[in-house]
Design a protein that fits this description.
Layout: E1 19-24, E2 27-32, H1 37-43, E3 50-51, E4 58-59, E5 72-75, E6 78-81, E7 92-94, E8 96-97, E9 116-124, H2 128-139, E10 144-147, H3 168-171, H4 177-189, E11 194-197, E12 200-205, E13 211-215, E14 218-229, E15 233-235, E16 248-250, H5 251-260, E17 268-272, H6 276-287, E18 291-297, H7 306-315, E19 319-321, E20 323-329, E21 336-341, E22 354-356, E23 360-363, E24 367-369, H8 372-379, E25 384-386, H9 396-413, H10 423-432, E26 451-455, H11 465-469, E27 475-477, E28 486-488, H12 499-503, E29 509-513, E30 522-527, E31 539-543, E32 549-560, E33 569-574, H13 577-580, E34 585-586, E35 609-611, E36 616-617, H14 618-626, H15 632-639, H16 651-661, H17 683-687
Parallel strand pairs: 1-7, 3-8, 9-10, 9-14, 10-11, 14-25, 16-23, 17-18, 17-23, 18-19
Antiparallel strand pairs: 1-2, 3-4, 5-6, 5-7, 12-13, 13-14, 15-24, 20-21, 21-22, 26-29, 27-28, 29-30, 30-33, 31-32, 31-34, 32-33, 35-36
Helix pairs in contact: 2-4, 2-9, 5-6, 6-7, 9-10
C-alpha cells in the first residue's frame, strides 16, 4: 500500500523513521511508534474507519481533536478515538462496522477509589493561553497544575508553521507558531512550582468543586482553589449534502495531519471559508505539496488578513467571494465538490454551479469557544477564570497575552501579586484581538535610487516586527501604533540588510536595490515553499499582490539565514525598473484549476446531516420545528439529535442556526440541559477499574 508520508518540508524537519508493525482489519501495515492511530491510517492511504450502524454511511476523521467520535476504531478489542490513541507495536486495529462489541473481561476486575489532589491553581489546556498563564503563576512560586489531553504542550501552536503577528515583545511576532510553543514550554519547565500532566483529559466539573480528570485511563479528582479554563476553540461545521463524507473535515484536523504528523492527507483540496484559519490552512497545504484548487467565501471579501489572502493568490490559488458550497460528492470518500455564487439575499444564483474534482473539502467557517467547563464551574460557584479562545475567539498572539493577564489576576486573588496589573495591558489585549482594517491603496515611494524596502501591506492589523528588527531604526508605523502601516522614515537610508523582508509574518516586504543597475534593479522576494523551485539560474514567475504574473526572471541568488530566520528564503531576481516595486511573490501553482464539470442537479439541502453521531438530517430538524418544537431537550427526545457521543458539540450550533433560518425567535427556544460530564468516559474508568497502565 502506498505511503502518504511527507518526505521533505520547507519549514519542518522530517523526523527519522521509527516504524512499528500493526494490523488493520488483519492486513499488516507499518506506522510510527507513538503517533496517533488516525495518522498511521492516513499515512497508509486509509480514510474510512468504519460504517455507521444506522445507515451504513462511511465514517472517518473529522475533528482530530478528541471532540467527536467519528474516528472511532477498535484497538486491541477496545473502542477508542483513533485521533487520541497512540499507535503501539503489534496493535491490532479494526474498523467499526455497526455497533462495536463490548470488550471481553478477563478475570475479576480490580477497583480502587479515585485519588483526590488539591492544588492552588488548575489550568485546563496547555495551549498559548494556558502556558502563558502558568508561566506567570510559576514565576511567583504558586502551586499550579497544567493538564492537556495531547501528548505534548502547545495546543494549536504545534500546528502553526507560519510566523506570528503582533509585537516581538508581547507575542513573539516574527517567530513561527510551533517554535513559540517550544519557547513557552522551555520557560514553563524551569519553574518548580508548576506540574504538568499530558494525555490528561478534563471530563467534567461537579457541584462539590471537583474537576474530573482521566490521565492515561485512570480517573483522578482535582480540587482547585482557583480554576483557569484555557481550552481553546472548536471548529464550526456547515450544513450541506455530503458533509459527513470522509474527506470533509476542519482546518484543525488538516493541519494536525500535515504539520504535526507530516502526513500528506490530500492531493487536491478546496477550502470553504476566507478567515485567517482557512487562508493559513491553504498556505500550509501548498507547503506540504498539496494542490489548492480554490478558496471560497460567502461574504463579499475575505474576513482574514489581506496579506494572507495575497499570499495564496500570488501562489496561484483563485479566491471566489460570494460563493458557497452546495454539495460534496462521493460514495466512500469525497471525489468532488460543487460550489455556486450567492446573490445579495444569500440565495444561490441559478446557472453558477461549478464542480471541482477534489479529494478533500476543508471547512474553515469559524470557531466556537470551548467554554462548557467555564460555564459549569461558574454555575457551581467555583472561582473560575478563562483565557484565550475559551474567553473570546481571537488570534493566538492575543491568547498568549490574555493568558498572561489572567494568570496575574489569579495570583492577585491569591494574595501573591501585590502590584496593580498595568491598565495598558487590557488595551494591548484589545488591540491584539482587533479585526483587520479596511484595505487602502498605497503608492510605493517615488525614489528609484539606492536600496529601499517596499511595504505591500495595506491593511491595519496588529503587527510591527519590522520596526523591531531594523538595525538602523528607520522603519516606523503610522502614529507609532502597532496597527499602523509601516513606512521608511523620510530622509533616512536603508542599508539593505533584508531583515525586514525575512521577519515579516505576511511575507509582505520586498527590497529593491538600484545601486548596481538602476534600469534593472535587484528585487529580494520572501519565499517559503519548495526550495527546488528557486535554485540559482531557474526562471521563476514573479507576481504582484493580486497574483498577476509580471514576468519570468532567472534567480540571481538565494539567501538563507537558517539560524535567525529558519525556513524563509530570500530570492533575488533582476527586473525591469517599471515592475520592480510591484513584485512581491513567486507563483507555485502555474495554472489555475478550472472546474471539471458544471453541476446543476444539486441534492436537496434537507439531505444534509446535522447530527453526525445519530445521522439526523436538516429535514428532520426542520420538520420538528414546523411541528412546534421550541425546546432542544424535546428535540433530542423526539429524534435523538444531540444524543450522540460528542454531546452535541458539532450539531448544537447548526440546530440553533436552523431555528433562526426558520424565523423562530431564539429567545423562545429552550436550550438543552448540560450535564456535568462533557467527555465520554468508560464506566470502568469512572468506577476506578485498574488495568494496563497505572497512573504515575
Amino acid at each position: 500500500m502506498s505511503t502518504k508520508r511527507i518526505q521533505s518540508h520547507p519549514i519542518l524537519d522530517v523526523p527519522a523513521e521509527n516504524e512499528v508493525a500493526f494490523t488493520w482489519n488483519g492486513t499488516p501495515l507499518t506506522g510510527r511508534d507513538g503517533e496517533m492511530i488516525s495518522s498511521a491510517l492516513f499515512a497508509n492511504d486509509i480514510h474510512v474507519f468504519g460504517h455507521h450502524h444506522k445507515d451504513g454511511s462511511p465514517q472517518g476523521l473529522f475533528c482530530a481533536n478528541g471532540q467527536c467520535s467519528q474516528c472511532m476504531v477498535i484497538a486491541d478489542d477496545v473502542p477508542v478515538k483513533s485521533c487520541m490513541t497512540p499507535l503501539k507495536k503489534g496493535m491490532a486495529v479494526q474498523s467499526v462496522e455497526g455497533l462495536p462489541s463490548l470488550p471481553s473481561v478477563g478475570g475479576k476486575p480490580v477497583f480502587e477509589p479515585a485519588a483526590e489532589k488539591s492544588v492552588s491553581v488548575l489550568i485546563i489546556g496547555g495551549g498559548p493561553a494556558g502556558l502563558s498563564a502558568a508561566i506567570e503563576l510559576g514565576k511567583l512560586g504558586i502551586e499550579t497544575l497544567v493538564i492537556d489531553d495531547k501528548d505534548r504542550l502547545g495546543g494549536k501552536l504545534v500546528l502553526q508553521t507560519h510566523k506570528f503577528f503582533g509585537s516581538v515583545e508581547d507575542s513573539h511576532a516574527g517567530t513561527r507558531g510551533f517554535e513559540i510553543g517550544t519557547i513557552l514550554e522551555a520557560q514553563l519547565r524551569e519553574l518548580p512550582s508548576v506540574e504538568i500532566w499530558l494525555e490528561a483529559t478534563a471530563v467534567g466539573v461537579f457541584s462539590d468543586g471537583i474537576v474530573g480528570v482521566v490521565k492515561k485511563n485512570v480517573y483522578r479528582k482535582i480540587r482547585p482553589e482557583k480554576l483557569l479554563v484555557a481550552t481553546g476553540a472548536r471548529e464550526k461545521m456547515l450544513s450541506f449534502p455530503g458533509n459527513t463524507l470522509p474527506g470533509v473535515y476542519g482546518a484543525g484536523a488538516f493541519q494536525t495531519l500535515v504539520n504535526r504528523d507530516l502526513v500528506k492527507s490530500s492531493d487536491r483540496v478546496l477550502i470553504v471559508g476566507g478567515g485567517n484559519v482557512g487562508l493559513i490552512a491553504g498556505y500550509h497545504a501548498i507547503q506540504a505539496g498539496i494542490e489548492v484548487v480554490a478558496l471560497i467565501e460567502a461574504l463579499p471579501q475575505v474576513g482574514g488578513y489581506k496579506v494572507h489572502a495575497d499570499k495564496l493568490m500570488r501562489l496561484g490559488v483563485p479566491i471566489y467571494t460570494r460563493h458557497t458550497v452546495v454539495a460534496a460528492h462521493g460514495s466512500a470518500h469525497v471525489d468532488g465538490v460543487t460550489i455556486a455564487q450567492l446573490d445579495d439575499g444569500w440565495q444561490i444564483i441559478p446557472g453558477t454551479h461549478k464542480t471541482f474534482a477534489v479529494d478533500t473539502v476543508l471547512i474553515a467557517v469559524g470557531l466556537a469557544e470551548v467554554n462548557e467547563f467555564y460555564l459549569k464551574a461558574r454555575q457551581w460557584g467555583m472561582d473560575v477564570y478563562s483565557a484565550g479562545d475559551a474567553q473570546e475567539i481571537a488570534e493566538a498572539s492575543a491568547a498568549m497575552f490574555t493568558g498572561k493577564i489572567e494568570g496575574l489576576k489569579i495570583a492577585k486573588a491569591l494574595g501573591r501579586y501585590p502590584d496593580e496589573i498595568p491598565a495598558e495591558w487590557d488595551e494591548k489585549a484589545t488591540i491584539l484581538k482587533s479585526r483587520p482594517g479596511t484595505p487602502v491603496h498605497r503608492e510605493p515611494p517615488p525614489s528609484e535610487e539606492g536600496v529601499m524596502p517596499i511595504f505591500h501591506c495595506d491593511q491595519e492589523v496588529p503587527c510591527n516586527p519590522c520596526t523591531s528588527v531594523c538595525p538602523e531604526g528607520v522603519i516606523r508605523t503610522e502614529d507609532d501604533k502597532i496597527t499602523g502601516l509601516p513606512y521608511l522614515v523620510d530622509g533616512t537610508k536603508c542599508q539593505g540588510c533584508m531583515a525586514c523582508v525575512a521577519i515579516c509574518p505576511g511575507l509582505a516586504v520586498t527590497l529593491v536595490d538600484y545601486r548596481k543597475d538602476p534600469d534593472h534593479p535587484t528585487v529580494t522576494l520572501p519565499y517559503e515553499i519548495r526550495r527546488e523551485r528557486v535554485e540559482k539560474g531557474q526562471r521563476v514567475p514573479v507576481t504582484d499582490s493580486d497574483g498577476a504574473i509580471l514576468g519570468y526572471y532567472p534567480v540571481q541568488r538565494v539567501v538563507a539565514n537558517r539560524k535567525k530566520y529558519p525556513g524563509t528564503l530570500l530570492v533575488q531576481v533582476k527586473m525591469e525598473r517599471a515592475a520592480a516595486k510591484r513584485a512581491i511573490g513567486i507563483r507555485v501553482q502555474e495554472a489555475r484549476v478550472d472546474p471539471s464539470t458544471v453541476y446543476e442537479n444539486a441534492p436537496l439541502p434537507s439531505e444534509a446531516v446535522i447530527c453526525r453521531c445519530e445521522r439526523i438530517t436538516a429535514g428532520e430538524i426542520r420538520s420538528a420545528i414546523h411541528s412546534g418544537v421550541r425546546d432542544m431537550n424535546q428535540m433530542k427526545a423526539l429524534n435523538r439529535a444531540g444524543m450522540g457521543a460528542c454531546g452535541s458539540k458539532t450539531c448544537r450550533p447548526m440546530i440553533w442556526r436552523i431555528f433562526q433560518e426558520e424565523g423562530v425567535d431564539l429567545k423562545s427556544v429552550t436550550d438543552r440541559v448540560d450535564r456535568p460530564l462533557f467527555v465520554e468516559v468508560a464506566l470502568g474508568t469512572l468506577a476506578g477499574e485498574r488495568k494496563g497502565e497505572r497512573d504515575a
